[in-house]
Protein 1
Amino acid sequence: MGIAERKIRQKEEFRASILEAAWLQVLTDGWQSLSIRKIADAIEYSIPVIYNHFENKEAILMEFTKEGFQKLGLALQEVKEQHQRPAAQLEAIANAYWDFAFENTEYYQLMFGLGIPACEQARQIPEVKEMTSVMISTIKTAIAESGNPDADGYLKYHTYLSILHGLVSIQMIQKDAKSDLSKRMILQDAISGFIITLTSK
Amino acid sequence: MGIAERKIRQKEEFRASILEAAWLQVLTDGWQSLSIRKIADAIEYSIPVIYNHFENKEAILMEFTKEGFQKLGLALQEVKEQHQRPAAQLEAIANAYWDFAFENTEYYQLMFGLGIPACEQARQIPEVKEMTSVMISTIKTAIAESGNPDADGYLKYHTYLSILHGLVSIQMIQKDAKSDLSKRMILQDAISGFIITLTSK
DNA sequence: TACTTTTGTTAACACTGTTAATTAAACTAT
DNA sequence: ATAGTTTAATTAACAGTGTTAACAAAAGTA
């Protein structure tokens, strides 16, 4: 009864070809341009066959999200093993994380829900500058009054904003995971850590 | 010649009514559900009139993005003025930033390009756990071997991941703004700061 | 060969953003 | 007040999107 096996194998190949065509599209024009019709066109089948293998478009994107986390996990594990001291490991992991994100922007955007069209030109908005200036000025005076007056204000500002944004957007994705209080503790922890490294040398 | 003035005023009112209807829709069902047709329906006009006031849909969303940054900027400025010491100001700003984000999630998502559909259920993916376990285990051993063995590993993990994700996604938005080297310096700065507060008391 | 199950296609539904052509309204000048 | 001009708004369509019901074709089974 190898006939059933072959069917399963064919089905698996079909599924893989869908993902392959979809990923090619994502790599070419970004995940926003992915459409069922384009996939169907690429694999030279009619549209509804795709729904025999994936419940909907979201399921296809979810597949890549999983793949992304898997790849990232492996990459982090790998660099970790190349170091002994935990501090060195954490540094290596951070660098690997960074590299993964920018060498696989499509993966990363899917994994963390990035990529609203309106944000593409967001950096040119004057309101952004006005907001950031509040932060920058505060950080600069903090540095000036600290025991480490030759720290780079802009660098520290980016660090500060990144910590804030990272905290917020991570918590925003995993909505119900934590209590408001424990979320606030994470914020407190990160910010107090930042302030310490900012004001002391 | 008050007639020209009135026209300008009417045009401004029209524009405002479009934004009002659009924002109501965003608040009700999220920015992903916003459509030109729904706006036209809400203001009881035909579809193309909207294009007399906004170049396209993106321009409408951009308007809210600007509004968001303006509101955030004002909120930060306000809390800053309530404190004297820069360190206290930075803490207050961080809290205000946090509050703004979660009291105005629609604004925040627009401002930072968050909200891909596939990410809603992303926390249940097993691959995520496997990736995070690499980080968590490293941090826990770092804590154990440090002079501060009673630190909360999960809390520090969240801080670590948030810093990384914040750095990445901020840099991803403002693509060309900085050189790769200066970006890497920001990463280095943030991570070394984190490690210091992690391993030392 | 006849029957059943699986597989694939056609065609449509209900949406989306955007725009050209056309009509209705408002204003200007005679 | 009427004729001409400019502005405003509408209808209708184009080109897409995800999704699905109804039907036809192929494959496997008796």
Note: Chain B touches chain A through 90 residues (CB under 8 Å).
Protein 2
Amino acid sequence: MPLDRDGPGALSRNERLILSLIRKRGPMPRAALVQLMDLSAQSITNLTRKLMQAGYLDAGAVVRGKVGQPSTPLALAPDGALFLGLKIGRRLAELALVDFAGRVRVHRQEVHSHPRPDRVMAFARQGLETMLATLSPAERARITGLGIAAPYRLWDWGHEMSDWLNLDLRYELARGLPFPVFLDNDGTTACGAELIFGRNDLPRDFIHIYIAHFAGGGIVLDGALRHGPTRNAGALGSMPIPSVGPGGGQLLDQASVSALEARIGRSLPPDDSGWDVPPAVEADWADQAGRALAFAAMSAVALVDLPLVVIDGAVPPATRARLAQAMRDALQAMPAAGIDRPQVIEGTLGRSARILGAAGLPLSHFFQPDGALD
Amino acid sequence: MPLDRDGPGALSRNERLILSLIRKRGPMPRAALVQLMDLSAQSITNLTRKLMQAGYLDAGAVVRGKVGQPSTPLALAPDGALFLGLKIGRRLAELALVDFAGRVRVHRQEVHSHPRPDRVMAFARQGLETMLATLSPAERARITGLGIAAPYRLWDWGHEMSDWLNLDLRYELARGLPFPVFLDNDGTTACGAELIFGRNDLPRDFIHIYIAHFAGGGIVLDGALRHGPTRNAGALGSMPIPSVGPGGGQLLDQASVSALEARIGRSLPPDDSGWDVPPAVEADWADQAGRALAFAAMSAVALVDLPLVVIDGAVPPATRARLAQAMRDALQAMPAAGIDRPQVIEGTLGRSARILGAAGLPLSHFFQPDGALD
DNA sequence: AAATGCATTAATCAACATGATTGATTTATT
DNA sequence: AATAAATCAATCATGTTGATTAATGCATTT
């Protein structure tokens, strides 16, 4: 198993590209890979042989019925690698074990009024211990890393979060763990999850907006998730917005669940079941949020030229649909001289996007091609 | 000479990287290249030998005086390749021949009240013919391409520009020319010029704002100039801006020479000599423009995470400095929760940025590494 | 209806090309 | 003698090409 992207056992760029193509488009025969990648059939033979021997690919049943030699589709081996994800949210801490095919094998969570370092660390440590104990030694050896999804600067949320300031979360959790630990903004992980596990018809360039307690996002350029020099790319919540009506001058003041909670005067539960917002209030909020989101989206289009906005969030599907529609309506009112208005679609992962994306961090590090031509 | 980036005679990625490093940081010995690139000394020996034989590099005088074997710095061979640039502006058409070291060998220009296809085409064709006639056959063979810098959708400027709608500028000029022709937004070429020929201390990520009759820009991410799927990245002039005071809701309505001309009620000449704007008017304009630019810059920082804004334009240096300072002041007033305010510096190329960038298009295509690790 | 030939497609074998590597060696200097 | 620059010789990694094998559907012949 790969210990570093360079070390022994590490996969080459083209090997990672093969895996990502099969992950995105499903099982396919070697001949399809020859078409999609710019490689000879011989190279595909060599690369897939190595990937099968390493346990990352399985040969499926041969497909007959067409002219020519029957083809043998290659699929991801679900046990090829295992990934751990930890998500720290405003109300919920989550821990998950995800397999190579993207399925969640184990999931546990804990509700809190607000996240505290000692409680979250204890939840993570105990959860990890329990999960690892249920795995066979062979499975444990297949774990390639732990990814953490957390908002930037937790200590900026308020004085009750100040304990986070002096905690190096990544370092503390990495101590004693036999695999690497990754940390990223939760909005960026949600975007990465859509890129790795989500719908397979996404273009090479898009922004992903994630509406949770706060508003975050991610951006994909030339097929690759952008992190930026300070790993703060996709900080859509911090985008400046003309402030009309209640709320301040940044996106998260207008387009977030916390803005909605401010309108109804109480907090909403961390799942869809207790989402009881008066329709009129939700509609007003969606209108305001949609205008703010449309403004941010047009800025993004002008700046980096992209055709699509994906919107998702920790909200019920109906609310997400309402936000998307409000955004489409608001886009029509935006000035667009010199640029094209983007298409708006909904994400597919909803509340699971961030935890899936957390587990996707080690996956991405070891198994995704960087600047993808897919 | 390379006819295509793949064809015979084309340079490999590492060969292009060597040339770009020497272009950016000046002549250096092979040992310095070993340090900067992630290659062995042997590989550098092989690659530089090939580049010297191909006429792209010259060995300088050996440097003695230090411990160890003296080093021989390698410099760009000025005659290694020649590039043509054509810039079409609101008041000025320009044509230039630029050598491999970035020096302008020949330059000619023509003023017009507004650009007309037949006049510009005639200027370009006659100019090219004259220039080519003065070159020796060996020099002509070294021309690798023609780059055109023009605003997007010229026909959107007004009804007198409608003739441009049905003209495929690139195709028309390419007919009969024995080298490829490239076309890009003039704001993007100005950014590319700064990247290729400009100051050598630029970071891997920045936006470049270019204030001319209209406002344009370019964006560099991970060391590479971004074009985007519709080649419209860096369309900063189209960014939405909260409209305060006179002007509309996009950046170019507030931060452009045309906005300044609207204030003084007449048009300004295409050179610094006749720039006679009343100081109070210019200060007001710079304040408004600075606020609009600061807004756009903070959007960019939140979206893609970058530390620097370069501002340049077809304006006198003093005016450019005033704009930069107005922008710095306005940035302090922007909300910045969750992100860092970018640094603002002035560009180095001024009015020559766009024509240099035009000639830089073929240079970039054949001689720059794509996703640069520099 | 069964047998045959053949185009078609998938996949591999064997030899080779390219671009890099490593370890030993040469050169010129303080 | 130590140091730094540069090269030589052998080798490795990754991909290529051209020939070859394999398994099938389809059209034609028997």
Note: Chain B touches chain A through 48 residues (CB under 8 Å).
